[in-house]
Design goal:
By secondary structure, the chain is mainly alpha-helical. It contains 5 helices and no strands. This is Integral membrane protein.
């Protein structure tokens, strides 16, 4: 297994860990600050639970990618797809970070996403994937 596949797995696990940290922050913020008056909602009372819903969503998405990163790091076939998909999603997120006035975070996000994609799509990684996904005799 190429080292770049392991690096892609590390990126996936790191993104999963960052998502876990943000989910914990979201729950703590909801507990300590209660309702968020900046939210626009058509149903009163929804702003009292949005932090918990956000945490669950983030845990599902980033927890899954973190687990897939672990699988990829250990050479499992399944982990590559979800890690690649998240990297592709992070590239437009980086663009919107620039639009939102966060150029440093945007550049860092774009660099990590591009590097993660390169790790999954260089020649060695593609050869590994071809062998890993070839029909078994």
């Amino acid at each position: 297994m190429p080292a770049t596949i392991r690096r892609a797995g590390i990126i996936g696990m790191a993104e999963g860990a960052i998502g876990l940290i943000y989910a914990i922050y979201s729950v703590i913020h909801q507990i300590t600050h209660g309702q968020d008056s900046s939210l626009a909602t058509t149903q009163p009372g929804r702003d009292a639970i949005v932090g918990y819903g956000n945490a669950v969503f983030i845990l599902l998405v980033f927890g899954f990618v973190g687990w897939c990163g672990w699988l990829l790091y250990h050479g499992k076939r399944f982990g590559r797809g979800p890690v690649v998909i998240l990297q592709m999603l992070l590239l437009p997120v980086a663009y919107y970070m620039i639009q939102g006035g966060q150029p440093i975070a945007a550049v860092l996000t774009a660099i990590v996403a591009a590097y993660g994609l390169w790790c999954c799509f260089n020649n060695q990684a593609l050869e590994w994937a071809r062998e890993a996904f070839s029909p078994r005799a």
